[in-house]
Amino acid sequence: MATTAVPEPTAVPEPTDGRPDGRATRGGERWRATRYIARDGLRVARTGPGHHDTAAAAAATADGVRPTAGQVGKPVSLPPPSGETHPEGDSRPTPHTREETLMQTVTTVTLNNGVEMPILGFGVYQIPPEQTEQAVGDALAAGYRALDTAAAYGNEEAVGRAIRSSGVAREELFVTTKLWISDAGEDRARRAFDTSLRKLGLDHLDLYLIHQPYGDVYGSWRAMERLHAEGLARAIGVSNFHADRLVDLIDHNEVVPAVNQIETHPFHQRTDDQAIMRERGVQIESWGPFAEGRNNLFTHPVLGGIAAAHGKSVAQVVLRWLIQREVVVIPKSVRAERMAENIDVFDFRLTDDQMAAVAALDTGESLFFDHRDPAMVSRLGNVTLDA
Ligand SMILES: NC(=O)c1ccc[n+]([C@@H]2O[C@H](COP(=O)([O-])OP(=O)(O)OC[C@H]3O[C@@H](n4cnc5c(N)ncnc54)[C@H](OP(=O)(O)O)[C@@H]3O)[C@@H](O)[C@H]2O)c1
Fold first, then answer.
1. pLDDT tens for each residue of 193-241
2. Mean pLDDT of the chain
3. For bias kind Basic and acidic residues, which ranges apply (predicted)?
4. Residue 109, strand partner residues
5. Which domain does 286 fall in, by range?
6. Is the CB of 176 inside a 6 Å radius of any atom of ligand 1?
């Protein structure tokens, strides 16, 4: 009965310079940082790496070569290219340098235990293990610092290899993995955590999630509370928990989950779930922000119209819409140009009318499956992982 990579729906930082959060800014980041704090009310986190490192690295990234260890974080100033326009899309002279335009500034959310989590990261579900090292390497080179994997994805080792060869410092990263159902329970969860950590080649996780709300969830949570207390998991949380299960878990345990990762996209918006999570101090994280392209999301006329108005893509509008709702997003792509596109969502803002137009697309239903469907509960509960 051993099966791998089945379980998701489709198969079925420097000295501070006075920033409000006390973190350092680098080179030209300050201009953008101020702007985003004002617009989002969210904190500014990390910046993209390869594009603003040494001159050598800047030249290398232009050729698609990743920066290596020691190149990250050393600013280089380049002249603005001729004809560069203001980020709002008009022809005013740009107020920032080329260095700044090449950087990505990802804001963070503060979890209920004070841990900062990037609001945008990179998901690796359905990336075959043999393609994962390249994909994660490309994502790190594009500026992503949060990575979302799972024991059930079968690619934790490849994620670990990509992290090691990227040269990005561990403290710059926010790494999430997840506990599968067949490892539920206090002892098993502990062993599964150790296995994931070994496969990833890490000595701690930033976020460890219960992947599905099935099996001995309470035993798993006790193990995870201990992992958290021991500092091995900076934050712990859940995934695919409907509000009733989430509240039950909260009300009968010590640690409140920091995150609930659930299907969230324009056709299934989860506003009621988000309201309850907000009341309870749980951060919502979207999986499937593009609904994996279902419902013709990428060619949807409403989303397309908003995208055209901003000179952005539908993918960027969807991510921006989620981020303005303070939903953490972890889009997946195996294509470097889409990775760059998907992280480039911090230089525009949807208007209230545009937010409302996207809100009107909600069907209130999953495009994948219902986590309360008995047949699916049983099916997923029978999926075990290879060692
Ligand atoms: N907790 C859970 O149960 C659960 C379930 C599902 C997913 N997740 C997590 O959430 C992450 C994201 O969800 P997901 O991977 O299911 O789906 P998704 O991010 O909604 O969609 C990924 C699909 O969109 C395409 N795509 C990406 N960027 C694009 C762009 N700019 N333009 C056009 N197409 C684009 C990708 O194709 P290419 O790769 O060819 O670019 C891929 O087919 C996962 O990777 C995983 O980490 C968790």
1. 999 999 999 999 999 999 999 999 999 999 999 999 999 999 999 999 9
2. 80
3. 16-43, 85-99
4. 117
5. 112-380
6. no
Is position 124 within any domain? Answer: yes
Is residue 292 in contact with ligand 1, taking CB distance under 6 Å? yes
Distance set, CA 300 to CA 264, 265, 267, 306 (Å): 17, 13, 11, 10
Active-site residue among 153, 208, 214, 218?
A: 153
Active site residue 153: yes
Nearest partner of 238 among 216, 258, 263, judged by Cα? 258
pTM of the predicted model, to two decimals? 0.80
What pLDDT score was predicted for residue 105? 86
Share of the chain above pLDDT 90, in %: 72
CATH of the domain at 356: 3.20.20.100
Question: Which two structure tokens, joined as six digits, stand for 96?
Answer: 């920032």
Q: Judge whether 80 lies within some domain.
A: no
Pocket test for ligand 1, best of 122, 290, 300 (most atoms within 8 A of CB): 290
Q: Which amino acid appears at position 264 of this protein?
A: T
Q: Is residue 249 part of a domain?
A: yes
Let me know if residue 256 belongs to a domain: yes
